[in-house]
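quick one
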Amino acid sequence: MKHIPVLLDAVLHELGDLTGKTVLDATFGAGGYTRAFLDAGASVVAFDRDPGVLDDVQDILQKYGDRFHFIAKPFSKMAELTEQFDAIVFDLGISSMQIDIPERGFSFRADAPLDMRMSGTGVSAADLINQLSDTELAQILREYGDVSKSVVLARAIKAAKPKTTFELRDLIYNPRDIAPVFQALRIAVNDEMGEIKRALSVMPNLLKPNGKCLVVTFHSIEDRIVKNIFRELTTVPGNPLIPVAAPVPFKLIRAVTPDANELENNSRARSAHMRGIQKSY
Ligand SMILES: C[S@@+](CC[C@H](N)C(=O)[O-])C[C@H]1O[C@@H](n2cnc3c(N)ncnc32)[C@H](O)[C@@H]1O
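structure w/ S-adenosylmethionine:
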């Protein structure tokens, strides 16, 4: 299924007139956000670490030419950019395409190798399970999935060494823990929390004066991280993330969740929140 962008109207509404503006789309996906920014008259630099997005990248390059530039890297590499942007937007998590291709190993609904790597490189979920101690695996299950009886389950998973999604699924005795266990492993395999923390630590330098950073999150752990980083940027004087002294360096933008219409039309929108801040120096 083609990915349906979540909270796109809310993002566009918050960014206002994009004519002649520059936008950094940290999570290109199927290019839903990028296309909307380009159609609204912006120039876009986009990141994605999944090589599966390249067909959509080619389509957009053909249509919009040099108003679009794509970087096939993790978005924490935005630290290497030297230009500044009017807006930086993150639409976190995985896309419908990633879930829908069984061989990617993200879904517990299809039997496939236990992979879960967004970039297709590095350590797969099956290998990560082998590398972690029982305690480390239990901590991941607890922290990123709020999984009940995480110590007992981690021990069972370590002992069984699952190689496929169904082998892992069948070890999880409480059906309510299946989705959270898969989510927790995916977050760990892709270092999702490290990526967002690193990117948000360089974001202040990459925004133009009055520029906005918007982040769409899909679960409470990443939402809490974003909320806390944004709160620090707006309240703590002398914050090392902020390069110059300013009386009120960032203003919080009111958080938004999907309306009833979006929830009805897109089940992926269920847990989404859009948070934002605006630079005022
Ligand atoms: C929810 S989708 C984005 C959908 C997009 N906004 C659209 O409308 O089509 C998230 C995308 O971000 C990518 N992604 C997630 N974390 C990333 C990271 N740390 N660096 C680069 N890309 C990442 C995933 O590969 C996926 O394609």
